[in-house]
Design brief:
The chain is built from 10 helices and 14 strands. By secondary structure, it is of the alpha/beta class. It has 2 domains: about 140 residues, Rossmann fold (3-Layer(aba) Sandwich), CATH 3.40.50; about 150 residues, 2-Layer Sandwich (Dihydrodipicolinate Reductase, domain 2), CATH 3.30.360. Helix 4 runs parallel beside helix 5 and helix 5 runs antiparallel to helix 10. The longest helix has 18 residues. The protein is globular and about 60 Å long. About 45% of the residues are buried. It binds NADP nicotinamide-adenine-dinucleotide phosphate. The site of NADP nicotinamide-adenine-dinucleotide phosphate has 20 residues, from helix 1.
Length: about 325
C-alpha cells in the first residue's frame, strides 16, 4: 500500500521513519506547501515522489492512503479535499477542531464511500487488548478508579501556542488521556468536571478533568503543554491495580497489589515506533472494503470530539472553524 504524507513537519518525520521500516506499506510521496521543502524531506527519507502542493499529492493516482499531518486547524480543509479526491485518509489527532467539523467530515466520507480514520495511535496498539484481558480476568478485582497524566513542555511550538491553529493542551495531549479512559472501559461519561489554566494567547495550557462513568468508575486525568509530567496511568481495582509506564505508548503493564508488590509484568511486543499499528489497521480496513477502522470507529471519534467541545466550552476556549 502506497502512502502519501501531507505536511513535511515533526510528526510526518516519524510516520516516514515508520513506513521506511515496514514491509507491507511504503511512503510513496510527500506533499508540502513548498517544493524545496518536499524535496528535502523526500531525500532524507528516501521517498520517491515530492510535491510542492497538497493538491498535487492528492492528484497522484498511485497514492492509496493519505496521512494528514498538519496543524489541527487545517485537518478539516485538507481532509475534505482528500475525500473529494477519493483518497482514503488517516488524519492526525485530534481529528478535527470540534464535533461539528468531525460530523461534517464523517458524513462526507460516508456519502462519497471514502475510508477515514483518526491517527490516535494508542487505539491501535496490542496493549489495548492486553490491558482489557487483564481487567476481564478479574486480576485487579472490579475497576473503580482510572488516573492518567500526559504533560510535555511543547509551549514553544507555534501550533500549540496559537488559537488560530487549534492550539492548547487538550487537542494535543488531553485527547490521549481521555482516550486512555475510553480504551479500557465501555462505560459512558455520566458527569464531568474540569478546571484549566490558560496561556496568555488564550489556549488551554494545563487542565484537570474528572469524570464519573455510568458504572461508577471515577476518572481523573490531567494534561499540560507547559510542563514535563510523569505521564503514567493507573487502573485501580478492588484488589489491585494496573500500572502503565506511559499513558500513550506503554512498554510495560504491571499488575500490582497493596504495598506496591508487583505480581506480574507484561511487556508489549517490540515496535518500530508504535505508528505501524495504526498504519496497518488502515491497510487492513481498506483492503476489507471498510470505511472506518474497527479499532477507532467513527462513533468513538465523535464521542471524544463532543467531550472535548464540552471541556473547551467550560474553559471559554473557542476556535474559529473553517465551517462554523
Ligand atoms: N501522534 C503523535 O505522537 C503526535 C505528536 C505530535 C503531533 N501530532 C499531531 O500531528 C499534527 C501535526 O503536528 P506537528 O507537530 O507535526 O506540526 P508541525 O511540525 O508544527 O507542522 C506540520 C506541518 O503542517 C504544515 N502546515 C500547513 N499549514 C501550516 C501553517 N499555517 N502553519 C504551520 N504549519 C502548516 C507544514 O507542512 P508544509 O510546510 O510541508 O506544508 C508543517 O510542517 C497535529 O495534528 C498534532 O496534534 C501527533
Amino acid at each position: 500500500m502506497n502512502v502519501g504524507i501531507i505536511g513535511a513537519g515533526h510528526i510526518a518525520e516519524k510516520a516516514a521513519r515508520t513506513l521506511a521500516a515496514m514491509e507491507d506499506m511504503q511512503c510513496l510521496a510527500i506533499g508540502s506547501r513548498t517544493l524545496p521543502k518536499a524535496q528535502a524531506f523526500a531525500e532524507r527519507f528516501g521517498i520517491p515522489r515530492a510535491y510542492g502542493s497538497y493538491a498535487d499529492l492528492l492528484g497522484d493516482s498511485d497514492v492509496d492512503l493519505v496521512y494528514i499531518a498538519v496543524p489541527h486547524s487545517f485537518h478539516f480543509p485538507v481532509c475534505r479535499d482528500a475525500i473529494l479526491a477519493g483518497k482514503p485518509c488517516l488524519v492526525e489527532k485530534s481529528f478535527m477542531l470540534n464535533a461539528t467539523e468531525a460530523a461534517t467530515i464523517l458524513a462526507l466520507a460516508r456519502e462519497k464511500g471514502v475510508f477515514v480514520a483518526e491517527a490516535i495511535w494508542p487505539r491501535y496498539m496490542p496493549m489495548v487488548s492486553m490491558g482489557r484481558e487483564l481487567i476481564d480476568s478479574g486480576i485487579i478485582g472490579r475497576p473503580k478508579m482510572i488516573t492518567a497524566t500526559l504533560a510535555y513542555d511543547v509551549s514553544a511550538k507555534e501550533r500549540v501556542q496559537k488559537l488560530s491553529l487549534g492550539g492548547g493542551a487538550l487537542l494535543d495531549l488531553g485527547v490521549y488521556v481521555l482516550t486512555f479512559v475510553r480504551m479500557f472501559t465501555d462505560s459512558t461519561v455520566e458527569k464531568i468536571n474540569t478546571t484549566c489554566i490558560k496561556a496568555v494567547s488564550g489556549v488551554d495550557a494545563s487542565e484537570v478533568i474528572t469524570m464519573i462513568l455510568a458504572d461508577g468508575t471515577l476518572c481523573s486525568v490531567q494534561a499540560s503543554a507547559w510542563c514535563q509530567g510523569d505521564n503514567k496511568a493507573v487502573i485501580a481495582g478492588t484488589t489491585g491495580y494496573l500500572e502503565f509506564d506511559d499513558s500513550i505508548n506503554p512498554q510495560h503493564i504491571r499488575v500490582c497489589r497493596k504495598g506496591h508488590v508487583v505480581e506480574r509484568e507484561i511487556t508489549v511486543p517490540e515496535q518500530i515506533t508504535g505508528f505501524e499499528y495504526q498504519l496497518r489497521a488502515c491497510k487492513d480496513a481498506i483492503t476489507a472494503g471498510l470505511l472506518e477502522a474497527p479499532q477507532m470507529p467513527h462513533a468513538e471519534i465523535l464521542y471524544v470530539m463532543h467531550l472535548m467541545d464540552r471541556l473547551r466550552a467550560e474553559w471559554g476556549v473557542e476556535f474559529t472553524s473553517a465551517i462554523v
